[in-house]
């Protein structure tokens, strides 16, 4: 594991190249590496949420004179669920009608019911991240296969790169949890830099074609991520 982590962090993309060249006994298998890192980091996120009383909860307004509501925003997408002004009925914005009806049945129309249900919403959202990312991984690998279809790589080889890259992303998420000033910014900046260098090492090509492919891939993955996150938020509300 330590040899694998050292190569993963020291030389972006080299771990994937070594695996594709057949040097598989020297390093942890891609799926095992990803599962180990993601589970540990998500566990750390859950623990830090429980231990930190100042951690902000999803927006819930229950002030006197205002109607209670839940608001979830991801990127440019947002979803609002709450009580209509005056307490007359249930309303949803940016939510399908069938889902809104199920939410009304699930949450009820009373402010107390809405407030009680949101107490565990953040924990359920955290629990949904792991399965959500595991579903998104094949989508990212499919995007790689389309963007680099002229490289004549099998889908499973793109999936290996996706596993290694997501393992690094989870490591950086874990770094942001450390109580060290400025380290969070370094971790967030490392993600795009590392991704670019890893793509260059594994797939090669001219820098401008690489930049074009990376831009298309980033747009595709961000859209997929936003959609999946909204579905995860709905699942957390309905769970």
TrEMBL record:
Q: Which Pfam families match?
A: DUF3667 (PF12412)
What InterPro entries would the database entry show?
A: DUF3667
Keywords, A to Z, come to: Membrane, Transmembrane, Transmembrane helix
> Could you list the residue ranges that cross the membrane?
27-45, 128-147, 159-179, 185-203, 215-238
- UniProt entry tagged with the keyword Transmembrane: yes
Q: What protein am I looking at?
A: DUF3667 domain-containing protein
The organism's taxonomy opens as: Bacteria, Pseudomonadati, Pseudomonadota, Betaproteobacteria, Burkholderiales
